[in-house]
Amino acid sequence: MTDDIFKDGGTNGNASESHETDDDNDDDVEGRSEEEEDAEEDDREVTESVGGEDAEDDEDDGDVDEEDEDEEEDEEPALKYERMGGAINDLLKKDSVSALAIINKLVALGTHSGIVHVLDLTGKRIKSFKPHQASVSDVEMDSTADFVATASIDGQVVVHSLSSPESYVFDMKRPIRTVALEPHFAKKTSRAFVCGGMAGTLVLREKGWLGHKETVLHSGEGPIWHVRWRAHFIAWANDLGVKIYDTQSQSRIAFIDRPPDSPRADLFKCTLYWQDDSTLLIAWADHIKVARLRSRPHPTASASGANLPPWIVEVTAAFDLDCMVSGILPHPMSSPSFPKENGSVASATTLTSFLIIAYETPDTYGDEMTDDRARQARKTAERPELRIISRAGEELTADALSVTNYQSWSCNDYLLAEVDPPGSTDAGRCYVVASPKDIVIVRPRDRRDHIAWLVEHQRYEEALDEVERLSEDERTSEIPDSRIDAVQIGERYIKYLVGEGDFVKAARLCPKVCGQDVRKWEEWVFVFAQKRQLQAIIPLVPTDAPQLGHLVYEMILGHFLNHDKQALLQTTREWPKSIYDISAVIVAVHSELDRTPSSSSTSKPLTPDVVLLMECLADLYTANRQYGKALPFFLRLRKPNVFELIREHNLFTDVQDQALLLLEFDQELVEKRRQEGQETNQSEAITLLVDHTHSIPAGRVVQQLRARPLYLFLYLDALFKKDQNLASDFADLQVTLFAEYATSRLIEYLRASNYYNLEAAYNICRSRDLVPEMVFLLGRMGNNKKALTLIIERIDDVQQAIEFAKEQNDDDLWEDLLKYAETRPTFIRGLLENVGAEIDPIRLIRRIKNGLEIPGLKEALIKILHDFHLQISLLGGCQAILNGDCVDLANVRQKGQNSGFFFGAKSRCPLCTEQLQRSPQDLLLLFLCRHVVHANCIDNVDNLPRYLDTGFDACIRTPPAHEVSAKIAFASVVRAKVHQGCPVCLRRGEGTLV
């Protein structure tokens, strides 16, 4: 599996220009030769394949299978890399790394010059000091990162405090290869550590009352190559194998032997790493073992079990590799930072996966004893690899590392350390790989890196899914990362899909990608339009929040107009009318309708496209408040609400040229109701036309309806019923229409109308042999005799002849009728039964010839006599009633005039508006009309004689006869003076007397 490890100029890839050094290290910071710099630049290339071949080697290897390369490129790497920047390049220009330790994100580097540099992960140097005169072979820091223990080839072990003057130096006389501090060294007063080296002795030193006490834990089996201390267990490696010591029981509890065919221990170092308090990882040469410690069960009472150590060590995994191991660390992957597909790294790894530095030995390895000088010459090494190995020894991933001068380094030159992850999660897990000239920071790829890889490999859909799975904290906790910008990824995905021709899927992404961005929406809509795939994005184009420009919506409607008229209608109904220019759309639709042949013909049936265009125009005109222009389309489309539309928006002027369409549509509705069994009243269209003749002139309607005589008849008939004057100009036409469509009602019209031409009407009736109508017209023209002749000869109806004679009130006509009836017994009888005040019965009886037999003559005569008696009786009774009523009314009048009149003290004179009783001497005049006025308010009444009244008491008692006579005489004098009657009534024109 391949991946770009890092690139020159990338993140933290270039060395910082900082030159911060201690005085002790000034001599060590010098420029390198041009050859070294050129070699380093050549080595700073990112590897492209598993195994890390050189660029030249890759060019020579031209037979690589392309399919295999494609498969490898499709596999996602598990780790990401970056060079440590800061001061590290300046520090290693002349010096080189020999030992590495990391605690609390502080990196302690031991160099071959005996210097120790303390840096942070960015490469910033915190402190440098020189505890040794030779190469630092091992470095370890306590858990607080305060104390740094170093072992050196110069035979010394130094424990140095970074925050205090406390420091310990121990001279072991022989080169020391490894050192380990006791757990929580800074908190312990014992200040214990263990070290070993070429002397073959593992020494435990701890501080006591009298100085440091030295205890030899093991010796005699060759040099001590590596030692590590965890909890109360100390593990070390010598030429024979690995041993574990328990500081609590002060006993050695296990020995794990080294395979007998193992290569030289000094050429391929042993790496020990405590994964936890009970698990030890052992990597030596090409062999890996996992040792797990567990408590021994309670020993039995036997003597043999009493001396057994309290712990049991089991090798739970052991396997060989095809490479040498320069370093090993556990790589927990049970809770990966991002999910992967089946068969990927995350699904295959377990808690006990291992991260190793794999070193490929040269092909001539093991030929040191040959005499061939060429084979004895040192061969260039291969690029180291950082591999993830499963518990079963299966290689899961392998990334080749391009480090500076890798050709010159051996297996022991590479170092691997783990940066403490924050908290209990693996999200911040980090590793450091060191070569003599490089420090590389290695991190597990997180979800962000996974998203970036998916985008890089054009797996945009998976990338978007991963972005959605990111929690809000993951998105906002760090500096914004463009790699997880869903909008940018979505845009790239849309571009990719458009390039692949998958426009439907691309369109579905637009709402997520464009969101509320109007500009992006418009850009993508135009892209789809240019690709002639507008129909794919149209259903997703927003009409609100955000609202795009009018041009976008009009372009979409134009697309529907040309390709899908049903969608055009539906869209115009659903979309808000404010988002596009309705007038522009109306013009476009109208233009399309005009190009359709059947749209202008009223006789041909409408095609589906024409119907859709008309409905669209009707809706658009209505939305644009141009109801008059929408009306013709509603009529042609037979919309039931057309009459409500006309009335609601007062479209009577607009409908004046649509009378025929309106009636045709209305008659269809009437016929439909009749078929459904509903009652049909007068045509709604005709009612509308008749009720609004001021807006819809009758002449204009008649002109349109001449082609449809039946509609014209219905219209004129309704118009005549409403007002004869409105239909006066069309009376002759109406006679013709009545004769054609309502013959039975023609006589009614002839009787009711006075505007038609009698002669023209008579000719029409004669042409159709309408005798009653002809009789009526002849009568109106004054040709009564001819009319009577028609009644007698054609109708033979004596009753009608009599009624006709009555109507004309012509004595000569009666004479003609009597003369005609002389020879016809039926007419004689009819006349006798129906004569009245118009003809004297004696006149008819005398014309009856002797001997003429008249059926029913006796009954007719008896009826005539009975009618005359009844008439005389009725006249007498009426006269008696009239006389009685006159007497009663006269009595009522007399009583009313003679009765008294009451008025109040506050009553006022209607002439002067003052109170009537101003003083007892005022003379008041009472008229029969009940008006009371002051006498002096009337002209010519000033010299009236005074009539003295005795007051109100005199009115109560019965007056004597002489007083009554005096009153009558006085009233006569007043009447003579007031000869014009009541002045109040005179003003009103009534003239009532006193």
TrEMBL record:
Look up the domain of life of the source. Eukaryota
Which portions of the sequence form the region Disordered?
1-82
Question: Which parts of the chain are CHCR repeats?
Answer: 686-830
Q: Which Gene3D superfamilies match?
A: Tetratricopeptide repeat domain (1.25.40.10), YVTN repeat-like/Quinoprotein amine dehydrogenase (2.130.10.10)
Asked if the keyword Transport belongs to this entry, the reply reads yes
Q: Which Pfam families match?
A: Beta-prop_Vps41, TPR_Vps41
| Protein name from the UniProt record | Vacuolar protein sorting-associated protein 41
